[in-house]
């Protein structure tokens, strides 16, 4: 299979550009003409390793892009526009976003060839995720794709808004910490060696704080290259460990025990997974299948395994509320609300309320965390500056007092 770039015009005279992956150039020409376009040119896309590497690591489809695309597709289809026409319009609007353009181009080609939208999205499972594709497929099977797209759009917009609040609240502390690290590195590598080098000429005994600062500065100057190597080694080790379920379980269990941050992780994870579970149930997907999908999207191995156990117990005939309670890791409010939803037959609606509750709690926790971090940063910065001043000035004081 090769990739071919084509240029064509529609009946309104608008230039259409696209990329198709097919065995031969003639197949591309047939596909373009069958779409009602007038073909102008076809060129085989040469494989460029650097271009592929750039797209792999830097060109990404963001959650906001998927949210916007889903909302636009939902609006178009609700207005009565056929799926192929809606996809074609979205593709033409996303020429600036290369990754999204190629996804929509591939989906449009497959849908025009008779494939369902959900099936065409499976190739991009790493972009859209299990829950999104499963919901689309369920909506197509039930003939309510427009309704499912509307719910998906609302769900993604809620998730995107929540993530934006979390990231926005953490920008200031992260910038300050990065600034502190950069300034400390510059001081240790460039400034301190020249400043403290003067003290060695006097031959007097240096205070412990000054000697410690000199040793640290000397280490940084001599072995600075070890820092990126060690960092890369730790990163590689974590990536390798991610492939092992036991490692992920131990790591994620520890993460949940970290004061304040662990509680925030639980609330964030519960807000996202319970919202996804509610959306899947409202899309008509069976509870067992929905729980298994949520287990795959849960960003925590402990809760992922818990959702799998719940699915297995429900499949064996146990009640949903009892299965949630049996795991022993879900907050009491989740167990109570699941029991209420199960009794009333409105589990999806109740779960959405629970998700909104945890999203609100997580937002409040983020505010509290940032409020606590700011004075803590100032204290650490003050201690660091104080230590630096003492380490630099003490030798001068000792020298002057000896005369």
Structure description:
This protein has 403 residues and is mainly alpha-helical. Helices cover 76% and strands 6% of the residues. It contains 18 helices and 3 strands. Strands 2-1-3 form a 3-stranded antiparallel beta sheet. Strand 1 and strand 2 (15-22) form a beta hairpin. Helix 3 runs antiparallel to helix 9 (145-200), helix 4 (83-93) runs antiparallel to helix 5 and helix 8 packs antiparallel against helix 9. The model has no long low-confidence stretch (mean pLDDT 82).
Write the topology of this structure.
Blueprint: E1 2-9, E2 15-22, H1 25-34, E3 38-44, H2 49-57, H3 63-78, H4 83-93, H5 98-112, H6 117-121, H7 125-128, H8 130-142, H9 145-200, H10 208-223, H11 226-241, H12 245-257, H13 261-282, H14 287-297, H15 301-315, H16 320-327, H17 332-344, H18 347-401
Antiparallel strand pairs: 1-2, 1-3
Mean pLDDT: 82
Kindly estimate the percentage of residues that lie in beta strands according to DSSP. 5-15%
Output the CATH homologous superfamily of the largest domain: Type II secretion system (T2SS), domain F
Overall CATH architecture of the largest domain: Up-down Bundle
Radius of gyration over C-alpha positions, nearest whole angstrom? 29 Å
Total domain count: 2
How is the largest sheet built, in terms of strand order?
Answer: 2-1-3
Question: What is the string of SSEs from the N terminus onward?
Answer: EEHEHHHHHHHHHHHHHHHHH
Distance between the termini: 85 Å
> Which class of secondary structure composition applies to the elements?
mainly alpha
Detail the poorly predicted runs.
Answer: none
